[in-house]
Amino acid sequence: MSLLSAMPAPFSPPADLLDRVRMSRRPLLIAHISPDGDAIGSLLAAGSILYHLGKDPVLACQDTPPASLSFLPRYDRITNQVHEEVDLVIALDSSDRERLGNIYDQGRIRSLPLVVIDHHITNTLFGDCNWIEPRACATAEMIFDLAQALEVTIDTQIATCLLTGIVTDTRGFRTSSTTPRVMRIVSALMETGADLPTIADLALEARSTELIQLWGRAIATITVHQGVISADNTLEMRVDLGRLIRAEGLASFLLGSRDAQIAVVFTELPDQRIECSFRAQPGQDVAAVAYAFGGGGHALAAGCTVDGPLEAARERVLARLYESLRR
Ligand code: AMP
Ligand code: MN
Ligand code: MN
């Protein structure tokens, strides 16, 4: 028996979702703004699965995917302009409509049926058909089950994309969402020939020297107070660092501090708004804090974007975090 057929109970896509996908000729797949490995891995894997079903999928994301993911097959196919006549919209790894960015404002996309495939506990059920599995470690885990339900064989390229989503959202199998089932799926994906060590290195470890410099500048600002470790990533810190915006991975790194239950990085955006990235130790719930500020995420990893200036935003958000820690 192959590992794939010996898999424990999958997350089951709703029949309605399968019908809509089967009926579509040219679906538009959208990954969330500021995309991560799960958003892009799920987008490319789902795109290939639908292609294998004889469809002509369009893959879109408002923001340019991180260069660190350019090793993924068909990375260059992702567009930020939709010119094609699409007939179905599939949102991936996105907990609310704003996460689809300006892709959703183009042409007649808003008038098309919308299918949402996501694993965020804070999902607002913004689709006409919503498949949400908060226990899934990554949207990529759900796309694995989608392939099974659609009876599409997972090849090495699809497996590479799914492994990227799983490896990044579990931070290398270190989150509590990393179940024995996840490891069985990973094993099955490796059986297709996908190269897990290389994927993990490229998706988790490889970073530009500029990003490391930005980490350095942001780390120089850390404060630790009432169990929260906090750092700033300001516009000024980045003037000489090209197009770099986010201090990717920094919040997780800061949570290594044993003096903190919660880590937060405040990023000043070009429009003066402030992006907040939260990470927390087990037992905390930063998704609730993020949600209160219009964002979302998971209990232990969440985010939101609030109005600036930085000092005022920091004060407001930290007050909420302290309050959440006292509970
Ligand atoms: P990040 O800190 O950007 O890696 O995000 C951590 C988690 O929170 C991910 O699951 C994101 O999808 C989610 N998240 C981050 N920002 C937002 C937001 N503004 N709205 C909803 N979810 C978010
Ligand atoms: Mn994501
Ligand atoms: Mn995800």
How is this structure best described in words?
- The chain has 327 residues and is of the alpha/beta class.
- The protein folds into 2 domains: 3-204, inorganic pyrophosphatase (n-terminal core); 209-326, Diaminopimelate Epimerase, Chain A, domain 1, CATH 3.10.310.
- The chain contains 10 helices and 11 strands.
- The radius of gyration is 19 Å and the shape is globular.
- The strands form 2 sheets. A 6-stranded mixed β-sheet has the order 6-7-8-9-11-10, sandwiched between helices. Strands 2-1-3-4-5 form a 5-stranded parallel β-sheet.
- The structure holds adenosine monophosphate and manganese (II) ion (MN) (2 copies).
List keywords for this structure.
alpha/beta; Diaminopimelate Epimerase, Chain A, domain 1; five-stranded parallel β-sheet; 327 residues; six-stranded mixed β-sheet; binds adenosine monophosphate; 11 strands; binds manganese (II) ion; inorganic pyrophosphatase (n-terminal core)
Task: Strand order, main sheet: write it out.
Answer: 6-7-8-9-11-10
What is the CA-CA span between the terminal residues?
A: 49 Å
Q: What radius of gyration results from the CA coordinates?
A: 19 Å
CATH superfamily of the largest domain: inorganic pyrophosphatase (n-terminal core)
CATH architecture title of the largest domain: Alpha-Beta Complex
Mean pLDDT score, rounded?
Answer: 96
Bound molecules: adenosine monophosphate, manganese (II) ion
Proportion of residues in β-strands? 15-25%
The level 1 CATH classification of the largest domain is Alpha Beta
Instruction: Give the tally of β-strands.
Output: 11
**What's the order of the H and E elements?**
HEHEEEEHHHHHEEHEEHEEH
Q: Report the helical percentage.
A: 25-40%
Query: Biggest β-sheet: count, sense, barrel?
Result: 6 strands, mixed
Number of helices: 10
Q: Remind me, CATH topology of the largest domain?
A: inorganic pyrophosphatase (n-terminal core)
Poorly predicted segments: none
- Name the shape in a single word: globular
Overall number of structural domains: 2
